[in-house]
Amino acid sequence: MIFHYPADRPAAFHLTISDNPMRTHVDTTGEIVPPGGRGKKELILRVIRLSCGLLLAALASPVSADLSYEIRGVDDPLKSNILGYINIVQLGGQVRLSERDFDQVVAQAIINARRAMRPYGYYSPEINGRIARNSSGGHVLELVVSPGPPVVVTGVQIELKGEGARTSEVSNWRDQWPLQEGDILDQALWEQNKQVVIDSVKANGFLGARFEVHTIELDLDRNTAELALTLDTGPRYRMGDVDFAEHFLRPGLLEYVQRFSKGDAYTARRMDDFRADLRKTGYFTDVEVEEIIRADVEPPIVDLLVITKTEIRDSYQGALGLGSDTGLRLRATWSRHPISSNGDRIDVGIGWQELNDEYGVRATYRKPRRERAREFWTADLTIKFENEDLEFKLNDEDEEFITIANGDNSDQNLRLGRLKIINFKSGDKQLSATPFIQYLHSNRDFTAIRELQPFAATANDLLLKGLLQPAEDALSIGYNADLVSIRGKGFDTRGHRERAWVFAANDSFGSDSTFTQLYFSTRRSYVAGDRWKFLLRAEVGYTDAEVNGFALDIDEGTLDLSITQLPNFYRFKAGGSQSVRGYSFEQLSNNNVGSNHKVTASAEVEMKFLPNWSAAAFVDIGNAFNDWSNPELKTGIGVGIRWYSIAGPIRIDVAQAVDFTGKPWHLHFTIGTPLL
Fold first, then answer.
1. Of 275, 371, 447, 602, which alpha carbon lies 20 to 30 A from 209's?
2. Please, where in the chain does CATH 2.40.160.50 lie?
3. pLDDT in tens, 95-107
4. β-strand 532-544 against 547-554: which pairing, if any?
5. What pLDDT digit, counting tens, does each position of 39-51 carry?
């Protein structure tokens, strides 16, 4: 006798039996139904008998208010599936039964237990059951199951058709099909992997993909199964017209948002990015994108109808943070977007952090250019005040600093630029490029807290005064670029981010100092399988600025100082949870006052051990310095724990400063993805 399992019905609920020339089928109770089905009279009588049995079970005088279940002879997933079927049939765990109903309940439980085992390849089990009293006086339904011989796959035929048959996703799916000859038939795995490829090809634009053939041919005399699948992906759909319906913004303003053009391949990723980009504009309180599938044209397309709603244009946000680098942090932000139908917006934020008692204000304004898509005029104003110690080291390998002065440091920075957003053809990357002009006013007012004497007088006196009380203006022009490609969330976040800038200041156009600075950084995240993740980052910064060296005589000895004339706002520093772990925040630089150059790198591996928890091990290296011939790179090694919460990843690291005397340990605590 050979059974044909049709692909459009789960195996646990329907089987077609083909016994040439007779055809019959197995119904949901596991009973064989004669050709042509049961007669109406027999079917009606059977329904009446079953209904009366359940009614009597509910109304009869009870022997117990509890019925529990015990399955022996099999483990999960068979055991769990059997329990699920029995619970459904018996109306839950709180059922009232009389003694005369026990046989009927046991018989029904055995029927459903058989049905629960079929999806896992067991069609001829031996099952014995009874209802007995348990130690608490209640009743327990006991089933002893002997699975019997499983159905084994003896043949697999997979055929691919359509435009998507040649894609790597489909080819890999076929090559990695899990049910091969000699495997036990697992219909749950069968259904799961069929759905995997359907979801994959539809996400890549083959919206009409379907299985033309998907059958399981069972021979229960031999306990064998023949599998047959024919996947037809159909043609790939293309992006069609985008209708933005009615909105209050000036015509043509929204067209810059989309990262695709008409005729580009449709992908679910493109649609996700489009919806996210519309929301990130800040123009709307609600965005709905309706996909209109048109299979009647060649090639088939997907038109989009964008329905937007704007009510409240002001938004307020507050944030409370805590980090080992900065201590307690507070931030409040007000945004108005859009200000007008031109799509311009303004954001104003104020903040405070415990480290150095730092206060800051930042305001940004952005206005779309009327004649250019994806381009904006931008203005950024940053004002920062902090109280800090001026600290030096006698020996670069010491962890402790010697404080020689304390005072206030303030920076006022204004940047004007033209932002251009460049979308890559693939649609999964976006480059933000900004040529800019920047004005910086810095002021430092420090007071020595101990007697300071330059080792040699004259010029060094001026250098010392400039170190304690400098005030300068810097006017620079430059170019900034930011490339982002990030997808996924939580542990599965993957992608990369690259940042780069170059700018120069010169006394010929009004700057007090002359310098040029270049910088590049990359951060990359890779996920391997379900448990492993790799994080890599590197950065390099170079500045062409004058460096002055002099000696300072203090009670503890002589300090050999190397001080760059670069404004403090632009100086490089290393160390901390986002740099070289094992060292304090911005602890690594020449004399702790910042340097012209910077090099850091990091490699980290994570292993997930719970759904939202992972353990990490890492090695960091780097330093900020003035002399390329002697960078003195520092190394930090450590381990950490990651919790992927709804507020973002929370990271706790314990790291050792390998290159400091005594190899001290530091605790680092941060919130947020390391890609951003």
1. 275
2. 369-671
3. 555 666 788 888 8
4. unpaired
5. 444 444 444 444 4
